[in-house]
Amino acid sequence: MTYYSGETIHGDWTDEAVRTVAGRSGIHFSGEGTFENLTLSGNVNRTFTPNAYVLCFSLERLRKFGAHCVRVDDIGGFFRSVSASLGRKYKIIDSGIGSVEYRERVYRHLDPAPSRHPAFIKPPTFEDEKEVRMLWVVDNPDIKPRFLDCPRARRYCTLLPPIA
Q: What is the pLDDT of residues 54-113, one digit of tens each?
């Protein structure tokens, strides 16, 4: 996710717009004291989550994902099972499950900020995928693709016949 502060904004710390642009630009103050004549312009703040695992699903069976499909019948049970297995390997700092919001991964100045973690945001060109994602942020900065042994998750799934 990328934020551009855009046009110059000038004011003091009592101005809500100045505080919003500063915070989105990665500038944070303790709240003690006052700041006058603050000018912000041309700031860029990029948000990365390098220590996360993401598992993606579609609400519909789409040929573009291949002929084979596993349906998850109990998404909550599946999520808890995978979380337990992953938790045996890493300390999970944060996790979540939800539908993807299809919007640009860029916002500017005082535009509405995304209400979701960046992992749940995808460009509108993929809106046909109707995606749901699971996210686990872990304490390991060295994330790599991996096989996760999670036999309990199988009870929440059904293997569907291949698309002919």
A: 999 999 999 999 999 999 999 999 999 999 999 999 999 999 999 999 999 999 999 988
Distinct helix (H) and strand (E) counts, the chain: 2, 12
Measured between alpha carbons, how far is 110 from 100 in angstroms, rounded to an integer? 23
- Global pTM reads 0.83
Distance CA 129, CA 156 (A): 22
Q: How far, in Å, CA of 3 to CA of 107, rounded?
A: 5
CA distances 61 to 91, 158, 164, Å, are 33, 13, 13
Would you say 52 and 46 are in contact if contact means Cβ atoms under 8 Å apart?
no
Q: Evaluate whether 82 touches 64 at the Cβ level (below 8 Å).
A: no
The radius of gyration of the chain from alpha carbons, rounded to an integer in Å, stands at 21
List Cα–Cα distances, 92 to 22, 27, 52, 126, 134, in angstroms.
Answer: 30, 27, 9, 29, 13
